[in-house]
Amino acid sequence: MTSELKVDKITPASGTNTQIGEAGDTTNLSAGTVTLPTTIITGQSAKTSLADADKFLISDSAASGAFKYVESQYIGGGGFIYLGGSESSSSVSAVTLDNVFSSTYRAYKVIGMIAPSQDSYGKVRFRSGGSDVNASTYKKIERTTAVDNSNNVTQHNYAANYQSTFFDLGAGDINSDSTSDYVAFDLTVTDPHTDIFSRAMITGTLTYASNNKIVSGFVGVGMHSNPDADGIKFETNAGTLAYHSIRVYGMVNS
Q1: Which terminus of the chain has fewer Cβ atoms in its 10 Å neighbourhood, N or C?
Q2: Which residues does 28 contact at the CB level (< 8 Å), separation at least 6?
Q3: CATH among 2.60.120, 2.30.30, 1.10.357, 2.40.50 for 80-251
Q4: Phi, psi of 175 (to 5 degrees)
């Protein structure tokens, strides 16, 4: 049976909801314009970290505009996923970033800068299960080139150790004054959660000021044992961190 009802407004009885159709029915609104309140979106709870299986509604241009969903993992726009970070101009003894490494990604970017409260170098350790990985398991090298205020260029091998309880950043001592004297770093951390191999590796670059010099170079780290890491920690060999800004990103696998 076909029938037609033309009205300007349908108002539900007090304290009830208006129902159109029964379960299994198809309600066709294609002939008109449907206006929905913005609270359909703004009234929902917020999610701040997308999962690969989260879904978005789209109009598929290859299927005459048919509604479909697409999962977050298939949406383009970048290969890096922000996982955590910290920034502060207040003095802290250490910066600990837990639960940023997992089996989800094979490689991570750790990008930032730290400024010591006194001339010193940075110390970095992995974290596992809420504790420092501080056994003598870090095999590290920092190789740098420097230019001084007389334009003299020198080569450095400031830090190399086959087994230590941490690895260095700015091993030539980072100046502590308030100009540009901090260490800036860009680290690539591979397989920290050790889901593929039994060792994690780190490669990266850094630049810092030290004793009237600008110093730049690379750092490489390999582990002597399995860290099973889920976090990373930054501190200094002496004093505190007067300022820090550090971000961790997961690199999408494909």
Answers
A1: N
A2: none
A3: 2.60.120
A4: -60, 155
